[in-house]
Amino acid sequence: MDLIVGLTTFFTLGSGVLTYVIARRDVRRRAAVAVAVTTALLVGLGFLFTVYLAVVAYLGAVVVWLVARRVLPSRRMALLAGAGALGVALTGAVVVMGYALSNMN
Q1: Which of 13, 19, 29, 38 has the most CB atoms at less than 10 Å from its CB?
Q2: DSSP track, 30-68
């Protein structure tokens, strides 16, 4: 049980800090804190339900966000693209985990 709590805390705090560092370049401090806290909560809750798939979803969303920063004209649009990618990826992770658990014998 300690391992699960430790890993959940590590990945939650890690995703929050990394998100704040990246978001601080794009938006103001308060908005960056809000984005980081929201992301950390989503990744933490997702980690409890999908274990490591939430971390993979988060890393994929960060890649989408960083690529979108180069392609899209507005950094806020890139932030929205990253948020959308995180939502879709976490939803997909939950669906995959639910399917895997429902087919266990």
Answers
A1: 19
A2: HHHHHHHHHHHHHHHHHHHHHTTHHHHHHHHHHHHHHHH
